[in-house]
Write a structure and sequence with these properties.
alpha/beta, 8 helices, five-stranded mixed beta sheet, globular, Purple Acid Phosphatase, chain A, domain 2
């Protein structure tokens, strides 16, 4: 089951697994690119798919924008969704989709989303955890998550999240207090009500993390002790400098009975056994065969977020006299002062 069946808006998909310790990945903004072939996926997305098949998480959360979209050409939209599904069909674990602003904009794109993926918002359970996928586009011109979806959220949490750890995925990081679309050619008077209406509902439960995309970067903040993470770097164009989080990436989340640990992975450094070459070596009278990596590259930033606070990488840079790594640049961007 690579793609779960989402029969209708607000479906609860049941319990999809039950191991006390499990792992999942988060990818966002994979995007089909602007190429002559509308079904073409980016090399970054395809590489991440290969890496996830090596890492074998229990499932993957997609934070929205699987296609380029932004068209009412139904044939092109079908080609783009076909390309996305064909690429994700190479995964060996389930992928749970989420609507982004490039996926659904009006009736035509909504109908094709339902044709390919199913309902617009839903939830499921894994072990003692409850996962909620919200549709950040349904009311985007008026409110963040509102109306029947907001009422569904209240009921879903009351029925399925009591005593469980809760994880939420949606496309837009609505916790920022930026205004909604208020241009005259859209509906004026929009307001962002996430912090006033939605966040308090989630806080009644054991909220452990919120994952979004939309901004093509990595960004992490804690709001009242809960990680709020933007992971929008799984294939779409990156428009930010590395020190501002602009790099290709995906998240790895480990859930254990007593903790939740997450990391950021920059694709390109996980090697299958096939990426090795055979060498003949001799020791004394004996000749033997060894396998070694066929290339050597400097490791990018692959670490638990607390490592940015520790200063360990900075100390190694000073000792080795090397150029600042991405970890150091990102640590600076996050506001952690370098040690003198």
């Amino acid at each position: 089951m690579v793609f779960p069946e989402i029969p209708h808006d607000g479906a609860h998909l049941g319990t999809v697994g039950g191991r006390d310790t499990f792992h999942f990945a988060v990818i966002g903004d994979t995007h089909t690119h602007r190429t002559p072939n509308p079904a073409e996926q980016s090399e970054t997305t395809l590489r991440i798919i290969d890496e996830l098949n090596l890492l074998r998480p229990d499932f993957i959360l997609h934070a929205g924008d699987s296609i380029r979209g932004y068209t009412t050409d139904a044939e092109r939209l079908r080609l783009e969704h076909t390309g996305a599904k064909d690429a994700f069909s190479g995964l060996t674990m389930p992928l749970f989709p989420c609507i982004g602003n490039h996926d659904v904009r009006e009736e035509i794109s909504e109908g094709i989303w339902r044709e390919f993926w199913g309902g617009r918002w839903y939830s499921f359970d894994f072990a003692d955890c409850h996962f909620v996928t919200l549709d950040a586009e349904l009311n985007k011109d008026v409110e963040s998550v509102a109306g029947k979806q907001l009422e569904w959220l209240r009921v879903d949490l009351a029925e399925h999240a009591v005593g469980k750890r809760v994880f939420v995925t949606l496309h837009r990081p609505w916790w920022y207090d930026y205004p909604l679309h208020t241009a005259e050619w859209k509906r004026p008077g929009g307001r962002n009500d996430w912090n006033q209406q939605v966040d308090p509902i989630l806080r009644d439960y054991d909220l452990r993390a919120i994952f979004t995309g939309h901004r093509h970067l990595f960004e992490y903040s804690e709001r009242n002790g809960v990680p709020h993470i933007v992971a929008g770097g799984a294939g779409g164009d990156v428009h930010y400098k590395p020190e501002l989080g602009g790099m290709s990436h995906y998240l790895w989340v480990s859930v254990r009975p007593d903790e939740v640990v997450w990391s950021v992975i920059v694709p390109g450094q996980i090697l299958a056994p096939e990426r090795a070459r055979t060498l003949n070596r001799k020791a004394g009278e004996h000749e033997f065969t060894v396998r070694t990596l066929d290339f050597v590259q400097e490791m990018p930033w692959v670490l638990h977020p607390n490592a940015a606070r520790s200063g360990w990488h900075h100390e190694q840079e000073k000792i080795n006299g090397s150029q600042p790594t991405f970890a150091a640049r990102l640590r600076k961007a996050l506001g952690f002062a370098d040690r003198s």
